[in-house]
């Protein structure tokens, strides 16, 4: 509910503003320790990324309520946003976007970690689980860049707005595609913020969509084996439908004005 989100936002904002906050039966304040604020910013940013790789990966619509709170906090407390991006880029290099190359002397295990895989006791997580986590983080990022906290000051610019999404998309299409990963990330990104990018960039956006259909999808196909076609097929269908309709649908779960009255 909108009222519940406001409560969450106010509590986080009060904590970061140095006000005493009640939690789990005790009162806490960042002023209780000289590094209290820095610690809270760090842990809060880390928590938001965890929401992306956990909650959003399983409940895709949850990207929007989480993102709108973070967007508002980022506006008032830029340090949280900076640290959030650092955590996000470390956990999901594709959010830069960047495909790390393996350097000489880097172990397989270390390289897997650089690519975003979780490695425990020399066991690398399964591909499905890895893709799900990356998907959740990209969807959260794509939601953040288009949302603003509705009760904030609208005079200033969004702290990390759609221009960053436009840049992400352009840079992504300049990279050589990877099997599995590239198709999934492009589809996630376009499903979540394609509509907002279409409204902002108009004809330039449609030129990009046409480029994806004519040039980039064939390049993804060239590196994709027959067993990895699922996501690529979904991306193909999505792009084709959008180009035919000359419209990108609003994402599922977007927060409507009526949401804030609940």
From TrEMBL:
The keyword Mitochondrion does not apply. InterPro entries: GLE1 (IPR012476), GLE1-like_sf (IPR038506). Pfam families: GLE1 (PF07817). It is found in: Cytoplasm; Nucleus, Nuclear pore complex. One of its GO terms (molecular function) is translation initiation factor binding. The keyword tRNA processing does not apply. Transmembrane segments: none annotated. Keywords: Coiled coil, Cytoplasm, mRNA transport, Nuclear pore complex, Nucleus, Protein transport, Translocation, Transport. GO terms for biological process: poly(A)+ mRNA export from nucleus; protein transport. GO terms for cellular component: cytoplasm; nuclear pore cytoplasmic filaments. Signal peptide: none annotated. Belongs to the GLE1 family. Required for the export of mRNAs containing poly(A) tails from the nucleus into the cytoplasm. May be involved in the terminal step of the mRNA transport through the nuclear pore complex (NPC). This is mRNA export factor GLE1. It comes from Rhipidura dahli.
